[in-house]
Specification:
This protein has 238 residues and is α/β, with parallel strands linked by helices. Helix content is 30%, strand content 26%. The chain contains 6 helices and 11 strands. The strands form 2 sheets. Strands 7-8-9-10-6-2-1-11 form an 8-stranded mixed sheet, with helices on both faces. It has a 3-stranded mixed sheet with strand order 4-3-5, with helices on both faces. The chain is globular. The N and C termini lie far apart (41 Å).
Length: 238
């Protein structure tokens, strides 16, 4: 029998809590798991290996315009404001990177197609990445027909398990985006994309696309919350 997939309720919390939970799920999940979440205030998450970034980001953080946090996944900086984030845990995912991205993103393509928004994979070379994750669109990313990158994804492998992070661009804040990245913000998602129900709609798309796996909604239990609190300590600093 295939392992039961775990669906977690959509959560809104600070960046340290969100990243700690994803790292904890990567370490603990025996079967696939999916969660969506939103962030308390604007956060800029830095990729696991991103060691250099513009000095003015530190200034923006000092002035309280953004908060900074380190992601457990790779890739470049992502501004989390006005969007929806997902984390997919996939034990025994294909070890070929491009194939893993293809299979791990198909449910998103299917889900947005059902909502009237056609998406396709990007074609920029991975080495072309700038400080801003949304400045380029590689095979890890999903782009709309206007060329706007709608979903930016990054991965982390650990003990045979895959964590795929993704930010779904919905309503990027124009002024803050320009402050952070010194460029014009991308266009918002089409009006027919429900900002409130999108997590439910995409969750259902995964359940349908991965029908070989039984899925269950399973919030964190009390002992898991305690374990997560210990994990949280390691995500307090960059």
């Amino acid at each position: 029998m295939p392992a039961t997939g775990r669906l977690l309720p959509t959560q809104q919390a600070d960046g340290h809590t969100q990243m700690a939970l994803d790292a904890w799920l990567l370490r603990r999940s025996n079967g696939p798991a999916l969660r969506f979440y939103r962030w308390d205030g604007p956060w800029l998450s830095l990729g696991r290996h991103q060691r250099h970034w513009p000095e003015h980001w530190n200034d923006l953080a000092h002035r309280g315009r953004i908060s900074l946090v380190r992601r457990p996944s790779g890739g470049r900086a992502v501004l989390h404001a006005g969007g929806l984030t997902y984390a997919l845990i996939w034990p025994d995912a294909p070890r070929q990177r491009q194939e893993a991205y293809r299979q791990a993103c198909q449910w998103l393509i299917d889900g947005f197609k059902d909502l009237g928004l056609a998406l396709h994979f990007g074609s920029d070379p991975a080495g072309a990445e700038a400080n801003n994750c949304f400045a380029t669109a590689t095979v890890a990313d999903l782009v709309d027909s206007s060329g706007v990158k709608r979903v930016g994804s990054a991965q982390r492998w650990q003990s045979g398990r895959l964590l795929q992070h993704g930010e779904i661009l919905l309503d990027p804040p124009a002024e803050l985006w320009e402050e952070v990245f010194e460029e014009e913000a991308p266009a918002g998602a089409p009006a027919q994309i429900s900002r409130l129900a999108l997590d439910q709609q995409l969750r259902q798309s995964l359940v349908q696309s991965w029908s070989h796996c039984p899925w269950q909604m399973q919030p964190l239990e009390a002992d898991e919350v305690q374990d997560l609190e210990r994990e949280l300590a390691s995500w307090s600093e960059l």
